[in-house]
Amino acid sequence: MEHLFVYGTLRDSDVQQRVYGRAILGAPDTLYGYRKSEVWSGDAYYPIAIPDPDGEIDGLVLELTDEEMARGDAYEGDEYRRQRVTLRSGVEAWLYCE
């Protein structure tokens, strides 16, 4: 299983159901060194994590299979890249960011 830190649309159970085929409760956690900004994608603005040494983002840690991670990559598209981060709890997780 992989860990993914989510802070935007992937926190929503309806979006999770559409992307992953199931709703995932997730565990609350915080990411330091990033802040939320916005990116234009298609027809709307969406949250995106950008580096900021003084920033922090509250979110959830989801446990996903490799197949689910691939579905998430397709959902996020070219506006996001996936990067490994360490969260406040010490958990290493993937992050979709700028």
Description:
The protein has helices spanning 13-20, 66-76, and strands at residues 2-6, 27-41, 44-64, 81-86, 92-97. It is α+β, with helices and mostly antiparallel strands and 98 residues long. Strand 2 (27-41) and strand 3 form a beta hairpin. The mean pLDDT is 95.
Order of helices and strands: EHEEHEE
Shape label: globular
Q: What structural class do helix, strand and pairing data support?
A: alpha+beta
- Compute the average pLDDT: 95
Q: How widely separated are the two ends?
A: 24 Å
Largest sheet: 5 strands, mixed
Helical content (DSSP H or I, runs of 4+): 10-25%
Bin the strand percentage: over 45%
- Please, how many helices? 2
* Side-by-side strand order of the widest sheet: 2-3-1-5-4
> Low-confidence runs (pLDDT<50, min 5 residues)?
none
Question: How many extended strands?
Answer: 5
- Alpha-carbon Rg, integer: 12 Å
List keywords for this structure.
98 residues, alpha+beta, 5-stranded mixed sheet, 2 helices
Detail the topology: elements first, then pairings.
Blueprint: E1 2-6, H1 13-20, E2 27-41, E3 44-64, H2 66-76, E4 81-86, E5 92-97
Parallel strand pairs: 1-5
Antiparallel strand pairs: 1-3, 2-3, 4-5
Give a nutshell description of this structure.
With 98 residues, the chain is α+β, with helices and mostly antiparallel strands.
